[in-house]
Amino acid sequence: MQPIQYVGExxxxxxxxxxxxxxxxxxxxxxxxxxxxxxxxxASTWVNYAKxxxxxxxxxxxxxxxxxxxxxxxxxxxxEYVREHISDELPFKYVFSAFWSGQEGSFLxxxxxxxxxxxxxxxxxGTWKAPVMAMMSLxxxxxxxxxxxxxFGWGENVLKVGSSPSxxxxxxxxxxxxxxxxxxxxxxxxxxxxxxxxxxxxxxxPTLFLGFSSTIVPFLFAFAGWYYK
Length: 229
Known about the structure:
Layout: H1 11-40, H2 46-73, H3 80-85, H4 95-99, H5 103-124, H6 129-145, E1 150-154, E2 157-161, H7 169-172, H8 199-214, H9 216-227
Antiparallel strand pairs: 1-2
Helix pairs in contact: 1-2, 1-6, 2-5, 5-6, 5-8, 6-9
């Protein structure tokens, strides 16, 4: 049986999105290793490796968020994350609320503030920078892993690592609808829960997650002090 050639799907977004998450995950691991090497060899080339690894992971976070927002603004309902949180009737002012109303968006909002704080620490941490940034990058390793959406194993023995926002609706569900090559035109978004459609939902999560992210700063310096003890 020939596979169905679907039309109307914007697959490039999902491919770039998944690639950005994987690159960010790998860059985070590399940053952890490079910063720990820098802690022992401050004058080595590991300094630049660590710096650019962190910059890359930060850019991947920004890029991932931008791609999801792009999909939401254009109502690309073939993506489950977009379909679940956006609808044609949803006012533009609540698109941001819809972004972080889901698990994947919440993780990305958390990572966004971590990246911003990390860039500040890169300039202000001084001699503590290497272990501080190593632990910040280690946190990103765990958060990126929550977005990987990679499966290991076979048959019934499958281990799922993370939930990717790049998954298509037809990859999530089995339905007769997907026998239609042009199924995208038939999709409608579920939209944002009416209880969340208020301006507090727009400003509350960013400030809340900034608070979450800020709590790691004293821990980072406490770890650095222990590390250099």
